[in-house]
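Journal club side-thread
Mid-discussion, someone asked how the predicted structure for our own chain would compare to the paper's figures. Pasting it here so we can look after the session.
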Amino acid sequence: MPKVKRKTDYLFQRPGSANWYIKLQGPGVHRIEKSLGTSDRRQADILALPMIAEHKARLLAARPRLEASWWHVLPPGRKYVIDNLPATIDSWGDSDNHSRMTRLTMCEYGSIDAREIVATERELLYYNDENALVKRKPNGGPAQQLVNLPMGALIHADKAPLAELRRKYKGAPFLNLDRLDRLQRGAVPTKNGDDTILEIYLKHAGVTGHFEREARNVWALFKTLTNSKPLKECTREDGRKLVQHFENEGLKTATIHKKIAWLNAACNFAIKENTLRFNPFASIVPRVDDAERRLPLDEADMKVCRRKLGTLSETDQLLFRLLAATGMRLGEAFQINGEATERGVRYVVVGTKTEASKRRVPLPTVVLPYLPKAIKGPLFAGGPPAASKRLNRFLRDSGVAAAGKVVHSLRHRAADRLRAAGAPVDIRYALLGHETRTVADSYGAGHPVPLLRKWIDKIGF
């Protein structure tokens, strides 16, 4: 006899009441019974639609599924120093905790001319004795992982009847890998004409890398929350489902605004191209000032940091000096992969956050003794997240524990010292790469680097 799928009815009437109620219950959700305030079933259906849609989105997000991930050959955010390399791989031994990984890497690498391996999220960077980058390799590759597994779940891929498995493993939930794979394929939002809007915008705006992945992930999430509802039928209420989702994850308003900005920009572009008439993401993030206030490091903070600086590695010492003496963002320091000179003054080009942030930054006099004679490759390896953790931990260990004082406080300190030195506003913008920019700023090559060096030396260390 074929199995009959039971229809789910979320609406009901309580005995003695003419009003319709909505009933919701599921994983991670307490049973909810709420009056819809109407005795008209059709009106109740309309009022219940947003709550039912949000409830279904939560159920979908809580289902066990296969999720795209990345496996690493070496754990990222760490440096692996290779000392006294043997002539053959077999004589390497097992003294190093990651010797198996190192042997594997060396077997693939062939020639032995690297002394250091830095593992990032996506790459393995090989450096020689002169700290020059000699090779790049992928740090692993795409993979899949199981998420939202029930406690004590047993995963099976055999053809044994479920009743037999339940008798063998009493009380345990079961997940069949083949069925789970089919569920995952079915749960992926279907492609439609709206995907073209995002594709055209990303190509037009030249969005790549991390930002492209972020935009695609937000778009996929929106389609899941709205069951792939066409954009031309979406309202701001649909857009606010994204806001609610991110708020439930505990994200700050500024972060939510940044994520939704990709879809907002894509829709605005489509409106200009006459392929869309309405933007469901316009002005949907509430104006809430929940950002954590960053405070500049004062002279007492810098004094203790200078005294404790030797506890950091040489690379992190240079990074801390550079951030303090230039006011550049932490991520910008990791963009440095070469240098240039203008009238004998060395400088680097950093800034990809916005068009206004791209700028030439002279290398301060107080930092020059600690820099290579010439920067001919990435100055810093690894990545900003790991460096941020190390430097913030350094601040706490040094006694700089006030709320709002973090490594980004070095940038606030630099801005204060430039103001105190009487640096003109346009000079401060040119050195720090702030958002404000006029049409006149786009003319010419910008301020002479020797002039900028005069002012950046006012920041000091």
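Post-session note: The mean pLDDT is 78.
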